[in-house]
Amino acid sequence: MELYTTSLLFIVSFSTIIFLLFRRNSAFWRSINTPPGSTGLPLIGETFQIISAYKTENPEPFIDARVSKYGSVFTTHVFGERTVFSADVEINKFILQNEGRLFESSYPGSIANLVGKHSLLLMRGGLHRRMHSLTMSFANSTIIKDHLLADIDRLVRLNLDSWTGRILLMDEAKKITFELTLKQLLSIEPCEWSENLRKEYMLVIEGFFCIPLPFFSLTYRRAIQARKRVTEALHLVVRERRIEREKGVKKNDMLAALFDSDGDEENFYDDEIVDFLVSLLVAGYDTTSTTMTLAVKYLTDTPSALAQLKEEHDAIRAKKGASVALEWDDYKSMPFTQCVVNETLRLSNIISGVFRRAITDVKIKDYTIPKGAKVFTSLRAVHLDQDNFEDARVFNPWRWQVSNSLSI
Ligand SMILES: *[C@@H]1O[C@H](CO)[C@@H](O)[C@H](O)[C@H]1NC(C)=O
Ligand SMILES: *[C@@H]1O[C@H](CO)[C@@H](O)[C@H](O)[C@H]1NC(C)=O
């Protein structure tokens, strides 16, 4: 009986709070000219529609239907919050370029627990810009040009040589990606330690795709524990490397770049460095390996593209001999490969979009996005829009050979 009363009390107060919140929220949204749209049921909004759309073969119907009804910017209500969706190239660019000024990144708390509060995904303002420019300059540095391709060449060969009989491509792609990332970040070669770290990582990643309540979800609990072990292991590495560095040992990797940038402004703390490494490993692992796997699928489905790609590579290989590693110049002389890369990225859309939150009222075209509103810039919708790309849903690397007016 008592339990019954308590739970009744709980339900009543809970729904009152939600009702009040919801009403406040609605009044606030109605007061200015926000993008049109439907917000579905109270509380739940259109969350079921978006989830069921993503469970079909073609996940576009959710956005397609709304874009044709309301235009390329519309309001919906998903995952507990009103959200402005943008499927417009210019608006997406505007939102992403105003990171830290008009918009800030916004991810659910469950993700923060897994990637760490200092991760690039969650960082805001100055620190975000600093880490971001560091990542970009690292990606453009001579370190990458001189070592990355040689490392890719070597690690891919190593893995290919170990393949026997039937393999699962996605698993192999993940292994290669992880080994390569670890090499670039920390100069660590594939070994038992790295393979164990990768197993922990897989548990962390699983945590992204489950109900983020430790009490209900074993997967989430396991992910949190695995994350703890991962950060402990990385902390040890960072500490050892600091000691080595004081003794004058120099290495060419991301960690060294992080240490070196210490002089610029204030130092990065070990905690910040570790979270940063965790997020780069998370970011690289699933996205890169899935894209690699899809590239193979698209090429298999399009034999003429595969043949042309092989021809280009065979020509380079014939010039260099079988055992000489690829170099930056070789990579730069693969025009058709670049087209295949672009087309794969356009079509696969592993990152389907980015969540941001408006820091202030923002006027875009004829609408106002109210301060505090969540915004989703859909990259996928732009990539798959027939107005931007002819036969947008077909894999056609040759489209990149004629100069494309759109550059995203
Ligand atoms: C990359 O480096 C080159 C030369 O070092 C420079 O011209 C170019 O602007 C850089 N690109 C980026 C994106 O930083
Ligand atoms: C691939 O896409 C990038 C970014 O849009 C663009 O700068 C580059 O020119 C494209 N490459 C080719 C070969 O079209």
UniProtKB/TrEMBL annotation:
It is found in: Membrane. Its main location: membrane. Pfam families: p450. GO terms for biological process: brassinosteroid biosynthetic process; brassinosteroid homeostasis; sterol metabolic process. The chain crosses the membrane at residues 6-22, 201-220. Keywords: Heme, Iron, Membrane, Metal-binding, Monooxygenase, Oxidoreductase, Transmembrane, Transmembrane helix. SUPFAM superfamilies: Cytochrome P450. One of its GO terms (cellular component) is membrane. Gene3D superfamilies: Cytochrome P450. InterPro entries: Cyt_P450, Cyt_P450_E_grp-IV, Cyt_P450_sf. Coiled coil: none annotated. It comes from the Eukaryota. Its cofactor is heme. GO terms for molecular function: heme binding; iron ion binding; monooxygenase activity; oxidoreductase activity, acting on paired donors, with incorporation or reduction of molecular oxygen. It is a single-pass membrane protein. Belongs to the cytochrome P450 family. PANTHER family: 3BETA,22ALPHA-DIHYDROXYSTEROID 3-DEHYDROGENASE, CYTOCHROME P450 26. This is Steroid 23-alpha-hydroxylase cytochrome P450. It comes from Artemisia annua.
